User: Which sequence fits this backbone?
């Protein structure tokens, strides 16, 4: 019995040691980064580099930085520390005058690809060490500016981001990259594609460090607000104005029908404008069962008014304009258009789709 107990203690000790090693070896978020450039092939063309960095205001980062770094014999080093993912681009200087921009060949590009560009002028960067080298050079003049297109190593974050542009964020991707802001940001852009339950499950897979970030908190607020909307319904604060400044309540918009279809759009959104003829046919076919209401996320009243008058939609077109430019976005957590939400007569959401009118039709036909 004593032998068994001794063995058990050893097993527990080994398990604890294994857990400790696993936790200790978990990769933490880096707090600083470094860019090392070595462009010997055109070292006489420039003597300094302007490094511009910018984030996304919608993700809580409105800070733009621009630093000039001296280059000696085509080499330069730039040290930085950023809270989250940034877009970076490079301008080459000679005697304090701009001589061109730096472009990089995309290592993920395949000949004939229509979804991945061959080159890019800016890329995503995290707090990581990046080496930019030049073993091939292509000078392209465009609008009076010389683009120095070189073959260089891409950043880890940009590599992840470029791949996620053509695929959905998945459980496996997050598990492989729990500290990646590129994955987190892509999940934010794709958030409307997931149910509340699925989005919450995916968010839980990120590291504890990433969960402390501003962008994670913004995504969590989106989810919390969306859950609240689906619980309380869309009728609660429905009080929007048309182009003639007349206000309309949910009851007025529904007008006794079984369903209300909210169409989120903007005057500048080409897919939104292209879908209007189909919406007119849809409205005509299902007018006995539902009403359609277009809610604009435009921030310019005149552009919105002009588009409404030109498109001549035979249903309510409402907005928070001209007083509140972001009211619709904030109230309904809309960041991408076109977006369609089908409501019941109590204002509770039934379907939420990204421009999938056929899905709406199938539901109405089967109920």
Assistant:
């Amino acid at each position: 019995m004593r032998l068994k107990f001794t063995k058990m203690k050893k097993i527990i000790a080994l398990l604890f040691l294994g857990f400790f090693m696993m936790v200790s070896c978990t990769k933490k978020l880096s707090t600083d980064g470094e860019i090392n450039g070595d462009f010997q092939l055109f070292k006489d063309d420039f003597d300094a580099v302007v490094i511009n960095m910018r984030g996304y205001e919608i993700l809580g980062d409105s800070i733009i930085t621009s630093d000039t770094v001296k280059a000696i014999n085509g080499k330069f080093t730039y040290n930085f520390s950023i809270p989250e993912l940034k877009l970076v681009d490079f301008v080459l200087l000679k005697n304090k005058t701009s001589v061109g921009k730096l472009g990089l060949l995309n290592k993920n590009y395949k000949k004939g690809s229509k979804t991945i560009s061959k080159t890019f002028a800016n890329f995503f960067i995290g707090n990581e060490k990046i080496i930019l080298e030049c073993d091939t050079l292509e000078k392209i003049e465009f609008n009076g500016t010389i683009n120095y297109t070189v073959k260089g190593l891409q950043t880890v974050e940009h590599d992840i981001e470029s791949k996620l542009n053509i695929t959905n964020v998945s459980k496996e991707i997050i598990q492989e990259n729990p500290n990646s802001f590129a994955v987190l940001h892509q999940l934010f852009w794709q958030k409307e594609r997931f149910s509340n339950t699925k989005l919450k499950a995916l968010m839980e897979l990120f590291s504890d460090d990433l969960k402390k970030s501003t962008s994670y908190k913004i995504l969590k607020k989106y989810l919390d607000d969306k859950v609240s909307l689906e619980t309380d319904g869309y009728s609660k604060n429905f009080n929007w104005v048309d182009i003639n400044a007349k206000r309309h309540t949910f009851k007025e918009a529904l007008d006794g029908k079984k369903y209300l279809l909210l169409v989120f759009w903007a005057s500048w959104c080409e897919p939104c404008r292209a879908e209007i003829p189909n919406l007119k046919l849809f409205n005509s076919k299902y007018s006995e069962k539902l009403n359609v209401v277009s809610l604009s996320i435009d921030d310019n009243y005149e552009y919105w008014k002009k588009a409404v008058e030109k498109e001549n939609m035979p249903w309510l077109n409402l907005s928070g304009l001209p007083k509140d430019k972001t009211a619709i976005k904030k109230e309904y957590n809309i960041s991408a258009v076109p977006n369609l939400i089908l409501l019941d007569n109590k204002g509770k959401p039934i379907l939420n789709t990204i421009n999938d009118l056929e899905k709406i039709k199938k539901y109405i036909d089967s109920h």
